[in-house]
Write a sequence for this structure.
């Protein structure tokens, strides 16, 4: 098989999901993001803390829309975000004078560590990148960024995923914990 033949793919596109599945995915993602955003905009608005980051949008796709994916399981959601946050902060602190290098090292290292720890969660790469490019408010948090917003936000989204994804008989979450 040639290099370019590999790019043709090997399987058919998956079938469409049912309207009911779409509704449950919508409801879970609405409630998960609403909870984190409410804490951010209403309860923490008078503090220097934050609760919502862009990578949570991608996590919502996985934990509410692709519940069976290994990348959406609790270990991956929480572990992938936490490890990537720590790595991203470290990359910024050590290489922040060369942002292009801090970005690349942060994301690449977070992917390697997530692989090694079986916590691969694609939004974790964005969490690491946000730690580097996130601006003064993110940088001021230092390693606290791993706890709030990252750890606390991931746990809130996990709690809502556990509650909502198990209501219908057709859904089950999680597939595994460890």
């Amino acid at each position: 098989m040639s290099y370019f033949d590999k790019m043709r793919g090997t399987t058919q596109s998956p079938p469409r999901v049912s309207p009911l599945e779409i509704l449950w995915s919508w409801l879970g993602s609405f409630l998960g993001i609403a909870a984190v955003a409410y804490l951010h905009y209403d309860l923490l608005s008078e503090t220097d803390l934050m609760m919502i980051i862009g990578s949570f949008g991608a996590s919502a796709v996985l934990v509410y829309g692709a519940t069976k994916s290994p990348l959406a399981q609790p270990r991956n959601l929480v572990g992938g975000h936490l490890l990537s946050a720590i790595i991203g902060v470290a990359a910024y602190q050590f290489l922040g004078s060369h942002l292009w290098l801090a970005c690349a090292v942060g994301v690449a290292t977070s992917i390697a560590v997530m692989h090694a720890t079986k916590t691969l969660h694609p939004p974790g790469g964005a969490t690491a990148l946000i730690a580097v490019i996130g601006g003064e408010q993110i940088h001021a948090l230092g390693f606290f960024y791993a706890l709030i917003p990252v750890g606390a936000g991931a746990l809130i989204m996990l709690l809502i995923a556990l509650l909502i994804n198990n209501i219908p008989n057709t859904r089950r979450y999680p597939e595994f914990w460890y």
User: Anything to note?
Assistant: The two ends are 37 Å apart (CA to CA). The longest helix spans residues 19-43.
